[in-house]
Design brief:
repeat, twelve-stranded parallel beta sheet, 387 residues, three-stranded parallel beta sheet, 5 helices, 13% helix, alpha/beta, Leu-rich_rpt, 18% strand
C-alpha cells in the first residue's frame, strides 16, 4: 500500500498530536509537507529512511528539543522546522547525521544558542542555506566555523550583542551570496569582510560605529547594501561610486559628515535606489555638510543605454497609474464628482417642475427650432355605420 507514493502534502490543515511513524516509513517518499498544522511532536522511533529528501514541519507546535528521531532521516537535503516552539539547542546535534543537508530553516524558535564545545562539533559539509532569524540567539553560533559551502546566512532579529568576532569576519566563504545580520545589537567598528562574492549585505538596526571601511568596496558583486540605522561616522567612501552592480544603497540614520561623494557615474548604471536622509526631527543636522555636487552622469543618449538622440524617457508604469487615478482628461476626480452632483440636482429639479406644470411654452419654442416636427399620421376617422 502506497509503495510508489513520492510526494505527500498535508499542509494547511488542523492535524494535531504526534506525527505517526508510518508516515516516514513509505519506502519511495521523497517529499513530505506537514507545515501549517498543529502537530506537537514526532514519533520517538522512526525507521531508517534513505529516500526522503525534503521535510517541512514548519508552522506547527513542536516544542522542546529538536526531535531526536529525525536522526534516522540520513539523506535529507532540506529540513524546515521554523515557526515552532523549539527551545533547547542541544538537540540540534541530531543534524550531524544528515551529511547531505543543503537547507536548514530554524527561524522563529527560541533556541537561545549557548556557546559550547558541543556546538562547535557540528559539521554539515553540504549546507548552503541556514536560516536562524528570530531565534533569540545571543552569540554567533560557533559551528559556523565548520561550514564551507554557505550561500545564504540569515541571523537577523536576534539578541546578538558586542563586536563582530574576528573569526566570523575572517571566514573565507567564497560561495556566500546573501548575509543578513540586521536587527541585533552589534557594536564596534565593521571589520574587513572576506566575502568577495557577496551580493546582498544587510546590517541595518545595529549599533555599529566608526568610519565605514573602504574595504567594503572590494565586494564588487554587491547589488544590495543596507547599513542604515547605525552610528557610522566620518565620510562615505568615495569608492562606492565605482561599484558597478550596486542597485540599492541605504545609508540613512547614521552620523556621516563631509561632502557627498559622486554616486552617479557610468560604472553605477544599475543603481536604482539611494537613501541618504538623516533624522527628520533635526532637519538642520542631517549628517551631511558641504556642497551638494552636481551629478557626473554622462548624457543619457550617449552612455545610459541608448544612442538615439531623439529618445524621450518614458514615465514609469507606477507613475502613469498614479496620474490616471488622480486625473481624467485634465480634471481631477474632485471636480468631476462636484460637476456630476450639481448636474444631478439641477436635472432633478427641472424634471420635477415639468412633471407637475406641464411643458413650459419657452421650453417648447426653444427646442422646436432644433428638432423638426415629426410627421404624424392623420387620425383615422371612422364613419358610423348607417343603420
Amino acid at each position: 500500500m502506497l509503495q510508489k507514493l513520492a510526494d505527500l502534502d498535508l499542509s494547511y490543515n488542523l492535524l494535531n498530536g504526534t506525527i505517526p511513524c508510518w508516515v516516514f516509513s513509505i519506502p519511495s517518499l521523497h517529499l513530505l509537507k506537514l507545515h501549517h498544522n498543529r502537530f506537537s511532536g514526532v514519533a520517538d522511533e522512526l525507521k531508517m529512511n534513505q529516500a526522503l529528501k525534503d521535510l517541512d514541519l514548519s508552522h506547527n507546535q513542536l516544542s522542546g528539543l529538536v526531535p531526536r528521531s529525525l536522526a534516522n532521516l540520513i539523506n535529507l537535503v532540506r529540513l524546515d522546522l521554523s515557526s515552532n516552539n523549539i527551545t533547547d539547542d542541544i538537540g540540534i546535534e541530531v543534524l550531524t547525521t544528515m551529511q547531505r543537508l543543503e537547507h536548514i530553516g530554524l527561524s522563529y524558535n527560541h533556541l537561545s544558542w549557548r556557546t559550547s564545545i558541543k556546538g562547535s562539533k557540528i559539521t554539515l559539509p553540504s549546507l548552503e542555506v541556514l536560516l536562524f532569524s528570530s531565534c533569540e540567539l545571543k552569540d554567533f553560533p560557533h559551528f559556523l566555523r565548520n561550514l564551507k559551502t554557505l550561500w545564504v546566512l540569515d541571523l537577523s532579529n536576534n539578541k546578538i550583542h558586542g563586536p563582530i568576532p574576528n573569526w566570523f569576519s575572517n571566514m573565507r566563504w567564497d560561495s556566500l551570496s546573501h548575509l543578513n545580520i540586521s536587527h541585533n545589537s552589534l557594536t564596534g567598528h565593521l571589520e574587513h569582510l572576506h566575502y568577495y562574492n557577496l551580493e546582498s549585505l544587510d546590517l541595518k538596526f545595529n549599533l555599529l560605529q566608526d568610519p565605514l571601511p573602504s574595504s567594503i568596496c572590494n565586494m564588487s558583486s554587491l547589488t544590495f547594501l543596507d547599513l542604515s540605522h547605525n552610528y557610522f561616522s566620518d565620510s562615505i567612501p568615495s569608492c562606492l561610486g565605482s561599484m558597478s552592480r550596486l542597485t540599492v544603497l541605504d545609508l540613512r540614520r547614521n552620523n556621516f559628515s563631509g561632502s557627498l561623494p559622486s554616486l552617479c557615474s557610468r560604472s553605477t548604471s544599475y543603481l536604482r535606489t539611494i537613501v541618504l536622509n538623516g533624522q527628520i526631527r533635526e532637519v538642520r543636522d542631517d549628517r551631511f555638510n558641504g556642497r551638494l555636487k552636481e551629478p557626473t552622469c554622462p548624457p543619457l543618449s550617449k552612455e545610459c543605454g541608448t544612442s538615439d538622440p531623439s529618445h524621450v524617457p518614458q514615465p514609469l508604469e507606477s507613475e502613469e497609474e498614479e496620474d490616471e487615478s488622480f486625473s481624467f482628461s485634465g480634471f481631477t476626480w474632485e471636480s468631476v464628482v462636484i460637476g456630476y452632483s450639481f448636474g444631478l440636482v439641477v436635472g432633478t429639479v427641472v424634471w420635477s417642475l415639468m412633471f407637475n406644470a406641464g411643458k413650459p411654452k419657452w421650453f417648447v419654442e426653444c427646442f422646436e427650432g432644433i428638432f423638426p416636427k415629426k410627421m404624424r399620421r392623420p387620425k383615422k376617422r371612422y364613419r358610423r355605420r348607417q343603420t
